[in-house]
């Protein structure tokens, strides 16, 4: 297994991702009813998506505070962010929901933000110092 000592960029990108994800999760869970009407997205979708983000935010926040990281965990975070971006765009383009213009902006903004996090995390991972399994 390959480990890294996270670069400052990786640590900050993971931390910012965790904070932004938790803020989005709380917004979607606690504000699902009013947001549903404003965004044109189903209340249940917003609430369950928000609930699903809570453990993810906790996990990414935990990773951001580690002195060493398994390289594949960071790769999984990057992949999850990429998948979230694709999911937002599929939801927007599929016709499964009929978002308002604010809902369209909400989905596009989420896709763009997580793509930026994924890119920063990928660059931060490449800047991180490699370690052998025995030293980790």
Task: Quickly list its features.
136 residues, mainly alpha, 5 helices, 3 strands
How would you describe the overall organization of this protein?
- The protein has 136 residues and is mainly α.
- It has one domain.
- The chain is 76% helix and 6% strand.
- It is built from 5 helices and 3 strands, in the order βαααβααβ.
- It has a 3-stranded antiparallel beta sheet with strand order 2-1-3.
- α1 runs antiparallel to α3 (43-64), α1 packs antiparallel against α5 and α4 (71-94) packs antiparallel against α5.
- The model has no long low-confidence stretch (mean pLDDT 95).
Fraction of residues in H or I helices: over 70%
- Work out the strand percent: 5-15%
What's the number of domains?
1
Instruction: Tell me the quaternary state.
Output: single chain
Mean pLDDT over all positions: 95
Write a compact overview of the structure shown:
The protein has five helices and three strands. It is mainly alpha-helical and 136 residues long.
Secondary-structure topology with pairs:
Elements: E1 3-5, H1 8-30, H2 32-39, H3 43-64, E2 69-70, H4 71-94, H5 101-127, E3 129-131
Antiparallel strand pairs: 1-2, 1-3
